[in-house]
Amino acid sequence: MGSQSxxxxxxxxxxxxxxxxxxxxxxxxxxxxxxxxxxxxxxxRRAGEVVTPPIQLAIFAGLAxxxxxxxxxxxxxxxxxxxxxxxLLGLGLNTIVGFAGLLDLGYVAFFGFGAYMYAIxxxxxxxxxxxxxxxxxxxVVTTASLGLLLGIPxxxxxxxxxxxxxxxxxxxxxxxxxATNPVVAGKGLTGGPNGIADIDPLSxxxxxxxxxxxxxxxLLVSAVxxxxxxxxxxxxxxxxxxxxxxxxPLAAGAIGIPVNRLKLMAFAIxxxxxxxxxxxxxxxxxxxxxxxxxxxxxITIYAVVILGGFGSxxxxxxxxxxxxxxxxxxxxxxxxxxxxxxxxLLIVLxxxxxxxxxxxxxLVLAATVALGVAVQAAxxxxxxxxAGGPVVEGGRLGDLxxxxxxxxxxxxxxxxxAYVALxxxxxxxxxxxxxxxxxxxxxxxxxxxxxWETSFVLQPAVARWILFGALLVVLMxxxxxxxxxxxxxxxx
Amino acid sequence: MQLPLFSVLDTVRxxxxxxxxxxxxxxxxxxxLYALIALGYTMVYGILKLLNFAHGDVYMVGAFxxxxxxxxxxxxxxxxxxxLPLIVLMFVVAMLGSGVLGVVIERFxxxxxxxxxxxxxxxxxxxxxxxxxxxxxxxxxxxxxxxQSFQLGSDNPAAFEPGPLVEPVFTIADVxxxxxxxxxxxxSIALMVALTLLVAKTTLGKAMRATAFDHEAAAMMGIDVNRxxxxxxxxxxxxxxxxxxxxxxxxxxxNHFMGFYAGLKGFTAAVVGGIGSIPGAMLGGLLxxxxxxxxQGYLGGQWSDIAVFGILIFVLLVRPTGLLGxxxxxxx
Lengths: 492, 332
Prior knowledge:
heterodimer, A: two-stranded antiparallel ribbon, 69% helix, globular, B: mainly alpha, ABC transporter involved in vitamin B12 uptake, BtuC, two-stranded antiparallel sheet
């Protein structure tokens, strides 16, 4: 590049005042609007421009490295390690869906394949104990090849066919592992529903990662390395080609981009990352079973990538953080009070996003509280059996909730009826004009609280899948680019 | 290691002629359900180019509505009204309920995304499917619910005497063809004929074909595109609801997850037959049902899903347009 600075600079292009040839007026004005975004969102975006990706990565790595010092071992596993696992899984999926725009619904099968292959090669199952330094690269290469293989039909398949083929592939994997379990060398290959237990820990040249802290750092280093690698891929010629492929495969092909090769490459990279994560996952749990690689996990990984924004690496990290923490809060084995606080915060957040004006938010929240107290008092006076139910795991909030949320005693189907009513109410509110929505919101928010206390709290694991499913639908309708993604302009 | 092929041949010999007929019967019954589901996929795909993942779950909801109606009238084995009107009522309510559900899904989840990229729509569909499945799990729990259709209307349920639904109508090679199986087969054929006539002969059918061909041009010709799409969802979901009740009556056991695999197989049927083609969906449905049934009988139940997946891959590689599908031209 040094030789270029010797040459005289080309003259500055003259900017004409009006619309120019080849520049759409609307597109130009949209660009200008994007330049100067207002409010909190604008300030955040400007901050994002100052903090460049290398600095972002450094901040992430620095903060993440301190986590084992202030988080207990149990929490390090449920939060720290799982966030990083989902970061890795999200990065792999982001390569396929976010970079290349291929809807791969069998992604989780690569994850499972990696875990199972590691388990077979490094456990007591067959008595093979290859060291991780051999197994992990072998697994990554094999999984990537499997990705290539699955990618081959994708060359001829338009988006939706690919989705169903991969979805079916993922299910076929689960069935294969769980039920088919072919007999190899006198033993079920995959262990059937029991899975494979006693998997060797990761070991590199005699150093074994056995404690949670060691495993956490292994994951963190892998995540940072993969983030760096993908950042460079994304910035490169290949990254640009992938983006053009995502926006319009036909046009990309027409300008000479090797569409098929790129699709296969994206598949292979994504599958390789998933396989690698699978190895680590196997060593973390020291056992693999088919249930870990089913549709719910797929939806969770999709939620991570979609929340963060397709194609955005920092988005994956953010998405993994938000989704994993809510995922674990809503896990049935964890204290319900965390989940409850999270759910109420979510309601408040939705109200804030809907109204975007602080005094209105305050008004709605006040109205919600007043409504709750009024309803509770009225029902208690008229029909006490409808209001006297116990609060499930109320903790410190127990009394507060007891005097605010309607919890009937001995009316089993009340929770179900309330849930259906909530779904109908939410759908109805979306049809109201924004100016009228404010009047309906307190009732809906209160109904949501009732549903939580009478139905969700009993089955938090199901509630989290419902919320994730709803998240996909709502995000796609409201903000398809996710939190940090760039909006796509559909060119007709 | 025993070579699998030989064991398959052994099984074929063991089951013999009557086994083959039995598997054929099961395949036809299952296939007619898949065909009905496939019709919904094909119609929606034809008109919106959307793979509606939630379709299988609409079928599941239909089965649950039928179950609810059955229980509202005292439930199996001895309902409070005569069996025939009860079954008709189950069908009508389930079909209407599923139809309304389909329209609601389209109205709230898909319509706002009419001009969005395909990926957005597909993920929305995935989210809707997951949402419906887990909502039913929340409402009804994970256990299987049983129609107990074996005993429905039985004279002596305490002695597990079979009811009129499973009465054999005729017998081929020692295999009984039960009343319910023949009824399901006949009903699904009748529904398909009705659908074909609707699409071919009525104004609505004409509007549907026009909208599938080109939304904008259809709108310019004065067709209310939104209403036509809603009607398509309604009809597709009605068929799925009917299939759900049929499944319940034939196989009894329903739960919240039944729609997922049925949806996958219904879509496979639609692809095998040629997506967008109504006779193709019927043909594909029967084919998938037969393959699944024979794979189950000869290879073992654990292979049946993988066999169906095999057909899907095979058809997509060899003839991506399906058996009866027209060659798709990608318009730019």
